[in-house]
Design goal:
This protein has 390 residues and is an alpha+beta fold. Helix content is 43%, strand content 21%. The protein has twelve helices and 13 strands. It has helices at residues 3-15, 79-82, 95-109, 133-149, 155-170, 177-184, 224-241, 256-262, 268-292, 296-312, 319-329, 357-372, and strands at residues 21-30, 42-43, 45-58, 64-68, 73-77, 117-123, 189-194, 200-204, 209-215, 334-339, 347-353, 377-381, 388-389. The strands form three sheets. Strands 5-4-6-3-1-13 form a six-stranded mixed β-sheet, with helices on both faces. Strands 10-11-9-12 form a four-stranded antiparallel β-sheet. The chain has a three-stranded antiparallel β-sheet with strand order 2-7-8, sandwiched between helices. A hairpin with a 7-residue loop joins strand 10 and strand 11. The longest helix is centred in the C-terminal third of the chain and has 25 residues, at 268-292. The relative contact order is 0.17. The model has no long low-confidence stretch (mean pLDDT 96). The structure holds alpha-D-galactopyranose. Alpha-D-galactopyranose binds next to helix 6.
């Protein structure tokens, strides 16, 4: 059964009727520009063909009732219980429900109508895998309330509201990349976003390369603490560097050359974190002409450099991710491999010659299992469209 059929059937079971609407919203994988979105840098993600499906209808009362199929849990809340993060029985909302509730909260703050709904959803974006399962949930619910609320916003505006929900309601200080990719994805195209101006365009993905996702199945535990610490280090770097470079607003404004000149002014850890960001922004700018002319060898080299930098300077890798990357980089057909997303577990992204992608995937699975004793999950993904009502 497809996810769409599953979600329709579950809706029917729960609510005794067929759903009025179904939306899908994809996860994402980022090819280059990691941990730079909150430093006003550039990112190069795609929306992937792993997604959440949400079936919904207008609610019969003022209660919004949600069924999360994958957890076999159900929750109800109203606009009134929202601010206290409680459900209708005055119990704390479970963590999974903070995402839809956070969306309702952010929309309400923006003065947008969020009529009660009943919904059932399921997803094949694994949680905590670095593929943005939470942004996909947020984008699905923004669309659901847009459908019922009688208002209409462009995809980037919807992305910003999802980010606000996650920052202010869930409490994860993420940047805009994930919600952007889930909202604005384009089939068979790579997205290029300037996280300062929010201008974006798409770039071609050559037919003869495949994007392979390799899931270590190591799940991030509560890493928002480490994530937020990285952000603080970046802010500290800007504060110190601005004494010599007045007017800089973020690490985006610091060239590699200026950074090298001033790096000794920074505390050692802050220097390493900021060096990753400054060099990664340079890499993501340098990638554009390479992608335009289809130079996968050089683009892959930048991807490999990104992993080394995330591992050694930004320190967001773990042994299993390093193993997956090392095995991948040794295999024929692999242009580049690195961890993707926030890090601390989850997936790697691999740029591979398409005709070798199947053999690559098999050899990577075997090589990784050999070294770690755990079977990974590996699949060739394709770039999909952003969130949409079906
Ligand atoms: C998480 C955040 C994004 C981004 C990445 C790292 O996925 O949600 O905003 O910062 O980490 O690039």
């Amino acid at each position: 059964m497809s996810l769409q059929e599953t979600v329709n059937a579950t809706f029917q079971e729960c609510f005794g009727e067929t759903p009025a609407y179904v939306v899908r919203a994809p996860g994402r994988v980022n090819l280059l520009g990691e941990h730079v979105d909150y430093n006003d840098g550039f990112v190069l993600p795609i929306a992937i063909d792993r997604e959440i499906w949400l079936a919904f209808s207008p609610g019969d009362t003022d209660q919004t009732t949600l069924r999360a199929l994958d957890l076999s849990e159900q929750v109800s809340f109203t606009l009134k219980t929202l601010a206290s993060k409680k459900d209708s029985a005055d119990k704390d909302l479970p963590i999974w429900a903070l995402y839809p509730a956070g969306v309702m909260w952010a929309l309400k703050e923006a003065g947008l109508a969020t009529p009660a709904l009943k919904g059932a959803y399921t997803s094949n974006v694994p949680q905590g895998s670095g593929l943005s399962s939470s942004a996909a949930v947020e984008m699905a619910f923004v669309l659901a309330w847009q459908t019922l609320g009688g208002w209409k916003l462009p995809p980037m505006e919807r992305a910003l509201l999802g980010q606000k929900a996650e920052n202010r309601y869930v409490g994860v200080n993420c940047g805009i990349m994930d919600q952007f990719a889930s909202a604005c994805g384009k089939q068979d195209r790579l997205l290029h976003l300037d996280c300062r101006s929010l201008e974006w365009h798409t770039l071609p993905l050559p037919n003869d390369v495949a994007i392979v996702i390799a899931d270590t199945r190591m799940r991030r535990a509560l890493t928002s603490g480490e994530y937020n610490k990285r952000r603080l280090d970046c802010e500290e770097a800007v504060r110190i560097l601005s004494e010599k470079l007045p007017g800089i607003k973020s690490l985006r404004d610091v060239s590699v050359e200026a950074f090298n000149r001033l790096a000794s002014q920074l505390p050692e850890r802050v220097e390493r974190r900021a060096r990753h960001v400054v060099e990664e922004i340079e890499r993501s700018v340098g990638a554009i002409p390479l992608l335009e002319k289809g130079d996968m060898v050089e683009f892959g080299r930048l991807i490999n450099q990104c992993h080394a930098s995330l591992r050694d300077l930004y320190e967001v890798s773990i042994t299993e991710l390093d193993t997956m990357v090392r095995v991948a980089q040794s295999l024929p057909g692999c242009y580049g491999a690195r961890l993707t997303g926030a890090g601390f577990g989850g997936c790697t992204v691999n740029l591979v010659a398409r005709e070798q992608a199947e053999a690559f995937s098999r050899a990577l699975a075997a090589g990784y299992e050999d070294e770690t004793g755990f079977p990974p999950e590996i699949y060739v993904c394709s770039a999909s469209n952003g969130a949409e009502v079906i």
